[in-house]
Give the backbone structure.
Amino acid sequence: MKALVYHGPGEKAWEEVPEPTIEDPNDVIVKIDTTTICGSDLHILKGDVPTVEKGRILGHEGVGTVVAVGSGVAKFKVGHRVVINCITTCGTCAYCRVGHPSHCESAGGVGWLLGHLVDGTQAEYVRIPFGETSLHSIPQGLTDEEVIFVSDIIPTGYEMGVLNGQVKPGDDVVVIGAGPVGLAAMVTAQLKSPRRIIAVDLDDFRLAQAVKNFGANRTVNSGQPGWIDQVKALCRHGGADVVMEAVGIPPTLEAAFELVRPTGRIANIGVHGAPVTMPIDRLWIENITMTMGLVDAVTAPMLIELIEAGRLNVRPLATHRFKLDDMMAAYDVFGHAAKNDALKVVIQA
Ligand SMILES: NC(=O)c1ccc[n+]([C@@H]2O[C@H](COP(=O)([O-])OP(=O)(O)OC[C@H]3O[C@@H](n4cnc5c(N)ncnc54)[C@H](O)[C@@H]3O)[C@@H](O)[C@H]2O)c1
Ligand SMILES: [Zn+2]
Ligand SMILES: [Zn+2]
């Protein structure tokens, strides 16, 4: 089969590799119908994730059709359409049982296996360990494009942003970063009826998208001087009830420390590669709560139900479409997403 193989920093190829086979009774083999590329794949290609070995097939998002199941798998049969969870979950270890498969012990302590520690979804076929608990059925009538983003970024925005940030009706919510993950946080924050969702980014196309399709009702471009005061002026209490950081660099988390109001919450979503100094000497007396984490994606089944019920529409994230054989071109577009006015690329068999 063909797959996107990582060959070390800066090196990748769409090349012929052996098809996966059942290695464990809990395995499921899925034929990929639709996949996509994540910012994390770009981080891997930059060499930022040294745990990824050369020869690894990338990708942790996908929709596909079951083509083989191990003897321990009862829930899925050949022919079932499934969404692949970006986090592998055994469902029985101490972490999985309390809803934190991001630390699944059976997966070796890190639930992010696919396209990281085992071969991933940017391929014609993928082996899903613990398939029974790491795949979700797709309700009849939903297209691949309607559910593909439930693999990763929609649960990421919802769990790391909205749930960790405890968004409540009437809150003023600021989301710094209107990339796919920030937009996912905005579209799911709407479910909690906040008063304002204020999108902050440097890119005017993304800010316009935030308002048009993802529920933001105010935008501020953080390239302008005085932008922090502009955001504060849009909040009722001189600052935000909830600030979500969806970029992953020190200046934007430092801005969150400025923007939050006393008793507010900072929900960090971004993956950071450098330490950030926290002004705890000021924040302690303001009763600020700060959260961070790797997504668990345990809300994926509920999010699929909301999509089926017409309460959540994440299709506008798909801005560019490719065939699997055009994987390298899809990487070119996604690698320069801002220049190409791209949010997510959808890659179909
Ligand atoms: N916690 C998790 O489990 C988890 C899961 C997936 C992704 N992430 C992380 O979420 C973050 C966002 O992911 P993404 O795919 O949307 O990334 P992205 O790079 O596509 O989007 C980031 C956005 O931030 C904007 N930006 C850059 N500098 C800025 C600044 N100074 N002020 C305001 N905006 C700025 C960019 O214009 C861009 O629109 C990344 O750090 C990613 O690694 C975390
Ligand atoms: Zn991802
Ligand atoms: Zn587990």
Summary: Residues 89-90, 93, 95-96, 101, 104-106 surround zinc ion (ligand 3) (CB under 6 Å). Residues 153-163 form the longest helix (11 residues). The domain at 155-291 is CATH 3.40.50.720 (Rossmann fold).
